[in-house]
Amino acid sequence: MTEIEQIANPAKDSVPTRSRPISITVLAWFLIVGGVLFLLMKPFTWSELTIERNLWNTFSKATSVACGVGLLGMRRWAVALYFGLFFVNCVLIYTWPANEQVLEHYSRPGFIAIMLVVPAIVALITLPRWKSMQ
Question: Is residue 103 within 8 Å of residue 94, measured between CB atoms?
Answer without folding.
Answer: yes
